Amino acid sequence: MPAPDSPLPVPVPGPVWGPYPERADVRPGSLEWLHKAVARLAEWPRDRSSRRYGRFVARVRALEASWRPTNPAQADDLAKMRASLVARGLTDENLAACFALIGRLMQATLGQTPHDNQIFAARVLLDRRLAEMAPGEGKTLAVALAAASAALAGIPVHVMTANDYLARRDGERLAPLFGALGLRVGIVTQTSDLSARRQAYACDLTYCTAKELGFDYLRDQAASKGRRHHLHRRVAHLEAPSGPPTLLRGLCMAIIDEADSTLLDEARVPLILACSHDSSRQLEDIGQALTLAGELREGQDFRLDHEGRQARLTETGKDRLEASAAGLPALWRNRSHRENRVALALAALHLFQRDRDYILRQGRVEIVDPTTGRVAEGRAWSQGLHQLIEIKEGCAASQGQHPFAQITYQRLFPRYLWLCGISGTLAESSAEFREIYGLPLTPIPPHRRGLRRELGKRLLPHWAALWDAAVARTLEVHASGRPVLIGTDSVADSEVLAAALRAAGLAPQVLNARQDRDEARIISLAGLKGQVTVATNMAGRGTHIPLGQGVEELGGLHVISCQHNLARRIDRQLAGRCARHGQPGSSESLLCLEAPLYRHYLPGWLRQLLAKALASPFRAPAQALGIALTGC
Questions:
Q1: How far apart are CA 404 and CA 37, in angstroms?
Q2: Would you say 168 and 187 are in contact if contact means Cβ atoms under 8 Å apart?
């Protein structure tokens, strides 16, 4: 790791890095531990002080002040800038001039000038670090500033957003700026065909989601046919310069928006590239497994592991299953096959719930991402689980898939030669980021002092009490004219609460996986005077809720969280929808003792004791304990 003021090596496809630059996998028994120790020691001067970044911001502002306001950026300025970045790398001196130039063009093309904290955050990203930037502080422009600077140095940059909507929105919104810099921007979404993807990745910058990029990387790996080591690729490139028709130009640089969601929450979910195969025999197998599973009794024949999403057969259940399979084809007399198939069927029947884990739309089972609340487009459960759930719900079973390549984000992103990310909620997991990805964290000072009022937490004894309390608080806040956003755990919960609000005379908008195609319109209305919006985690990431006329004077948006998240940073994401850009706002949490979080982590006797205490007139001790538990 270079010293703080020395340039970091610039990875670009070519003679030095090869035709498809990427970092090799770390193998067990390697000296990776030594590399990490040296890297952390080299990072120590950066960690000790944020004054260096403050001095860098001051240098950018001094350069801006030295230029005449009426002097527009000329083509020769850009040419000199690009030549300097390519020749001398991303040094503080080069980047200060580059940021000043980009800032001038931002004003001319977008009508916005980057704030000090956005310059600060962009410089942190170009140091291969994570930047924690509070919601509403302008992460999009900070990322654009860093991405444009790296692209001017010739680095192919992948900017990864939370979903297709944000990839298209940000890519199109920033296209005038990138065009003025002489840079081409590509956009990859789920609907992009292979030709469009190849053209997008050939651009200087590409806006996409981590999922789409991961699948495209797997396609490239399949096309390389064993030439995965960079030396093999170089030899193959020399023998046939045109090479196989890969989509990407390697894994040079990635800037990940909402980095905690991608690098932690979804880190171990495998991306599986598969091909269809004849599954008629598999479907017969699945139907038989469901029939056998339906004959078993919970507690006697099997037990459920809700956290691990698994069903485990008891010895009684195994014996009962063996007797039931006696007259079936020979495959069912194989103990391992029989028990594994039926255990999976039991999980499909009892552990995966409609309108929580998936929805039904147009006769199809669509998975709901538990972190984002959105439909996980193109994703299917493996090992026959998806078909089990389809048959359980009376849908036509989809074609079986045969996997031939897979990868997780935890394996994919360390292969980038230059990795960095940004989010509003990183501090709680800083040790994990360092350990898994080698990424240190830098907090970004806010542009404006936050004005959000935290109104605390309330613990309710059961679901009915929770919905009653949510309706009462909504009516109370709504009477003042302020908009209200209520977050729930699942699609089903959002619809139950919306029905209760309608019964109370309100007209809420609902945002969950069923309304994902109408997301932009619903979010645009959520900050209007008197508006009530009920949402799942879809409203927690990547969304800005603009306040309507007169709302700021009334106190801004009020957020009520009815979510039960084990990770506090997810709660912070929802609360961060209010009080943005120095505006006022408030948030509170309503929690239910019957939620799976409490049922899993609290013994039954303690939950019963708390429920009785909460139902009594003397609720203060139970309420205090509930707040302490939710703050752990």
A1: 36
A2: yes
Contact 569, 260 (CB under 8 A): yes
**Given strand 584-592, what is the order of strands in its sheet?**
451-460, 584-592, 557-561, 484-487, 532-535, 509-511
Q: Are 509 and 532 in contact (CB under 8 A)?
A: yes
Q: Which two tokens stand for residue 163?
A: 């979903």
Cα(194)–Cα(215) distance, integer angstroms: 11
| Contact predicate 45/3, CB 8 Å | yes
Which phi and psi angles does 587 have, rounded to 5°? -150, 155
Paired sense of beta strands 441-443 and 253-257, if any: unpaired
Residues of the chain with pLDDT under 50: 1-6, 28-29, 47-48, 70, 235, 237-240, 621-622, 624, 627-632
pLDDT per residue as tens digits for the range 587-602: 999 998 888 878 777 7
Side chain identity at residue 557, one-letter code: L
560, 524, 514, 518: which is closest to 545 by C-alpha?
524
d(C-alpha 106, C-alpha 113), whole Å: 6
Buried b (16+ CB within 10 A) or exposed e, 91-121: ebebbbbbbbbbbbbbeebeeeebbbbbbbb
- What 3-state class would DSSP assign to 522? helix
Determine the Cα–Cα distance for residues 316 and 292; give it in Å rounded to an integer. 14
d(Cα 231, Cα 401) in Å, to the nearest integer?
A: 33
Query: Measuring CA to CA, which residue among 253, 271, 226 is closest to residue 21?
Result: 253
